[in-house]
Amino acid sequence: MATTSERTGNDAALIRPQDGTRSFWTRLTANPAYQRASDLLLSSDRRRFWLLAVPALIWMFGTHLGPILTMIRISFLDSYPPSAGRVPDVTLENYLLFFQAPNYITPFVRTFVYSTCYTLLTLSLMYPIAYFLAKKLRPSRQMLFLLLLLVPFWVGEIVRTYAIMILLGNRGFLNIVLMGLGLTSRPIPFMYTGFSLGMGLVYLTSLYMLLPLYASLEKIPRNYLEAAADLGAGSWTRFRRVTLPLSKDGIASGCVLVFLISTGYYATPVLLGGPSTTVFAETIAGFFHVAGDKWPEGAAFSTIMLLASLVTVGLFLRLLGRRSGSLLG
Amino acid sequence: MMRPSQIALTTFYWAFIVYLFLPLALMVVMGFKDSNFIGFPINAWTTRWYLQVFQDTAVLHAFGYTLLISIVSTALSLVIGTWCAVFLGPARFWGRALVFAVMCLPAVIPGVISAISMRIFIRAIGLEPGTGAIILGLTIHNVPFVALMVLSRLGAMPRSQVEAARDLGADSLVAFLRVTLPFLFPSLLGASIFCMLLSFDDFVRAFFLGGYQPTLPVLIFAELRSGMSPAINAISTVVLVVTAALGLWAERATRRLKGTRS
Amino acid sequence: MHRQSTIARFTDVTKRFGRNVAVDRLDLDIAQGEFVTLLGPSGCGKSTTLRMLGGFETPDEGRILLAGEDVTRLPPNRRDVNMVFQDYALFPHMTVASNIAFGLELQGLGLGAIDARVGELLELVQLGSFRDRMPDQLSGGQRQRVALARALAREPKLLLLDEPLGALDAKLRGQVQIELKALQQRTGKTFLFVTHDQEEALTMSDRIIVMNAGRIEQDGTPEELYHQPRSRFVADFIGETNLFACQVRGSEDGRVVLDWNGILLRAAGSVESLGGRTAVEAALRPESIRLTSERPDQANALRMRIVRRVFKGSRIDLDLEAQDEPGGNAGLKASPDPAAIEALVGDTVWASWDPGRLAILQA
What we know:
heterotrimer; B: mainly alpha; MetI-like fold; 11 helices; 78% helix; globular; C: alpha+beta; Rossmann fold; CATH 2.40.50.140; 2 domains; 23% helix; 35% strand
């Protein structure tokens, strides 16, 4: 944005300031049409509020809530997309289907068990790292060490999943190293198992655990720990009685984020998992890729998964004694 | 003299760094292997996979298409996210907490459900899968992040800044454009890079909302499923370098901006 | 001082924030060319009063007139007043010149005219060579001057200053007070100044309005406020003071006779003006007390012993205790000039003061 002085300074040879040239803002605000619009729309606080509120609310309720509500509505229909001349009936059939076959319930339960395990695994791996960054490093080095962790996460889901495949394949790096060391004579089948899937999910989601943990640990003033030490608390007691309770918010946010994100992956389970690790995302996706009219079933299953994940998160937050609603705040 | 706990933590940190970087490094190395077979050991080296990628029109198209979609959705996310933040930041009204929750919703819904509900939604409003649908889906997903980043910067802005502009004769629009917007610039830059990375890397929305033209992640996914060609290593390496460079540049730029004008 | 035409008038103005009444039925006139200060503790409503005049708050009741025009509900950009903010609120992304030009551009001036006006203002605040600096390259005092130039640029009818010296260090503040007063006299502008610092108010103002809990406690010149505080609040808030809780005994030679713990004191005024009150409070400034070794020829004279002595450089703070008078160990604070007194702790002296200096509080 060119300022007045810069303009008068730089363009002095071209435009004589005495010419009465006026700046963009002067011309805009002196324009009668602009003045009328400004008077009409901006002059009162109330009008300004509604001017901002109406488009924002339409966007938020229309596009943030709209798809979810549409999905729930369709989950109660017996057919969708609608065929010509036929009004779909309302039914509970799609929800009942879920409880009728074990090949639906199994991936569902597996998804939640896996996601919970991976979340706890990520927590136990990332807590020491967040603690190391926030409490053991000089502030000047914290950013550098954090940045180093950040870089791999700028690369997308698919590329990083593929990188894990190279690491874990039968002729992958890990097997070559193990065989080279003589620890195994034949390649260990890491791929297409819960192990490879877990390895991939931790690889993909650990940042979402790290950042909230780091933020909450970094906020704990050093003199709290010094005061505790002064009062005779050993390092374990200091950690358990001071650091851990004060980082509870970070633990909660991190776990919720990782849990929700890991239940939502589709490509990673497809690429890293096998038939024994099919997750619910794959089951749902199946309804949308087969030919024919399976959308209502897919919508019902998505609704079940959404509800189940939100309930899990709600229970978890209650367990930690934390009010919900401040998840991202 | 370091204490044992310090040594343990430092070792653990570096071990985790190795875990993060090793797979990517292997991928880069694999891109130079002269063999049709992906795996170890490597006996001969080549650059032909890169040459092949740069001549492959499908890859180049996918790259350009993904870039286009990312840029458009980022621009939309910036405008809408900033609008929502500017609305919600100072406003005090009944139900604000609910509106705030609705604003954050797309950021916390599991990806696959978000994509599938969008798939149903665009059908319900009469749109076909394709470019418009992907852009809409990405924008919806990005808006909460932009809004939250802008909100936090707005919170750091003294109330007197806008008041001074108004006092000096600016109506609220001029005050916003000439004072608030420049103040928000660092967070807008950060948010735009974040959105670019999220959009460029996104798979699940592009997969469920896309038409016939695949985005780069969808193309790589399809290649991975249909049997792995060594060219994937080259494509992925290019993506890796581009995104890492963009991210690093943005990190430096935003830090510098926040340093000088806070 | 001589009253000129009224530039701003508050009529019965009330402002509430939720249940809290910030400004309570305020009536206030500000005359053309005056330097008026709103003085009071934080939360007394002084800033809210200023912000209502600036257009940043809208009164719940009452009217505000600016040069005869009702501006009660006018937005800030439509008012002919400008403000110097507490944190200066310079735009960090604009140069000094662009900051000052901001308001001029929106007045519709051409670039040439703006350029000339900016130069003029920079000269006025003695920052001629800082034109192209960014605000973060300036010292606190320089920023304050830029904010002043920016606010004066549009030739406002009234300049509002919201504690603009609070961020400066003590030494600089004294110097800026003088400069600000000189600038106000040179430009002939009306200044409405808000502060919680009584010394600042006394130094600069033509008129001080002391506020407390949303109401005006007292309105007068610095001298009036200092020597004739109307209420205990004003006496307490401005400077050090001795407060006497007294019984009214009657009048004598056109003075009021008061009984303070059995000691008889004389104060200027008449019993009639007390409105029938029999118990009153009276205030006396410590520096109004003269200390002598001989009994002075003065209606108010007490023999007292020095019990504490604190050297303060330009003055000495003494705590005195009454000796043989009926009041027993009643205490006083006195602040004589160090050059005039060589008394030490334990010495007995005569404390005396002019009846005109003993102010009977009206509330």
